């Protein structure tokens, strides 16, 4: 008997789905593990008949087909909102179907997440100084403490709307560069403090920013870099670091996001090029892995059970590890782009294995009752599954 896993997505313009390639791979791995994966959006739900016109992948014909299905026992939320209309749709859906069980869940905005993480004494030393943007005066005071700051939308993703401000020596002016709300690279411009809010007002984001201490991210060629770590629950319900890889931004960009033109590189290669010795690389990597697990575990105590988080990290020239951001709906393409296909496949497979773990817990018999094996057990070894496509 197979079990169902519904993937909750959101249509882009033209009824396109943003992660269709990922959903195809998820469906193929699901079939291997006895899980029927289907994709749906709030627009595909027939409220009157309590059914879903879902999208399913047929491996034999290598094609997507539509079919009517009932609501699944568990839902993997991959919604990226991209606009107020989509946000309203998903909010209405969650409010109407409150009894659905979610494999993943949205976290709070960057400011709330920062404050919650600050409560943990083991995580706090790794957090850049951050404030909620209120006024030009506050921004000027922050710039006096930190020669470089980043301004980020509280709820932004993919590098959209991120601004880098650098105080110019012997001047009251700043070098402003970044990406606009459409991810376009903004050329470096000399501005005064009074001009900064005016620029932000043009994007309609000025009241929704955080201001963060800038961590030195430039490589020798001037490009910025950081690290994307993927932390996931495994088939036993335990947090594991699935992998971590470096990202290097394109020329003149203040962000390293892959969707914004960045390139992927292995963590070890990037660290070794900066810090040289194997021992130093090993120490930094261990610190980063410990931090990633602590972040995932701490946020779970605040928001409840969820299956994965993408954690953006920086390592400054002294080797100190900094936590830049947490993404509850992470991509895993960074591992494919580095050529680490074993980690990439594991990153796709783990949400399905964790879904099976949750369903097995639900189906576990109480004392004195007969066990019903409702959920199939994966039979392949991990090495066999990693060779699957």
UniProtKB/TrEMBL annotation:
Domain of life (superkingdom): Bacteria
Gene3D superfamilies per record: ATP-grasp fold, B domain (3.30.470.20)
Region (Disordered): 367-389
Record protein name field: YheC/YheD family protein
Organism of derivation: Paenibacillus ehimensis
């Amino acid at each position: 008997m197979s079990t169902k896993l519904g993937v909750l997505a959101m249509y882009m313009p033209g009824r396109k789905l943003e992660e269709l390639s990922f959903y195809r791979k998820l469906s193929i791995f699901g079939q291997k593990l006895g899980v029927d994966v289907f994709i749906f959006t709030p627009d595909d739900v027939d409220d009157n008949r309590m059914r879903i016109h879902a999208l399913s992948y047929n491996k034999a014909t290598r094609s997507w087909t539509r079919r009517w299905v009932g609501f699944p026992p568990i839902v993997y939320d991959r919604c990226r909102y991209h606009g107020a209309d989509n946000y309203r749709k998903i909010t209405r859906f969650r409010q109407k179907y409150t009894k659905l069980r979610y494999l993943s869940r949205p976290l709070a905005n960057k400011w709330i997440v920062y404050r919650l993480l600050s409560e943990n004494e083991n995580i706090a030393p790794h957090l850049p100084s951050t404030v909620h943007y209120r006024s030009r005066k506050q921004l000027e005071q922050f710039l006096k403490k930190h020669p470089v700051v980043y301004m980020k939308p509280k709820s932004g993703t993919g590098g959209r709307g991120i601004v880098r401000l650098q105080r110019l020596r012997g001047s009251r002016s700043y070098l402003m560069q970044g990406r606009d709300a459409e991810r376009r690279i903004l050329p470096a411009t000399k501005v005064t403090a009074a001009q900064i809010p005016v620029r932000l007002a043009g994007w309609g984001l000025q009241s929704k920013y955080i201001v963060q201490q800038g961590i030195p991210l430039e490589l020798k060629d001037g490009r910025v870099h950081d690290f994307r770590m993927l932390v996931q629950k495994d088939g036993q319900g335990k947090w594991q670091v699935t992998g971590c890889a470096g990202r290097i931004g394109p020329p003149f960009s203040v962000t390293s996001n892959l969707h914004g033109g960045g390139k992927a590189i292995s963590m070890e290669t990037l660290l070794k090029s900066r810090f040289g010795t194997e021992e130093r690389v090993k120490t930094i990597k261990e610190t980063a892995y410990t931090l990633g697990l602590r972040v995932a575990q701490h946020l779970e105590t605040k928001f409840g059970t969820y299956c994965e988080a993408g954690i953006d990290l920086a390592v400054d020239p002294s080797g100190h590890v900094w936590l830049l951001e947490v993404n509850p709906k992470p991509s895993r393409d960074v591992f494919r782009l580095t050529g680490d296909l074993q980690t990439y496949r594991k990153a796709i497979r783990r949400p399905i294995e964790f879904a099976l773990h949750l369903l097995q817990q639900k189906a576990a018999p109480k004392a004195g009752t007969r066990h019903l094996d409702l959920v199939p057990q994966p039979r392949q070894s991990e090495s066999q599954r990693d060779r699957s496509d």
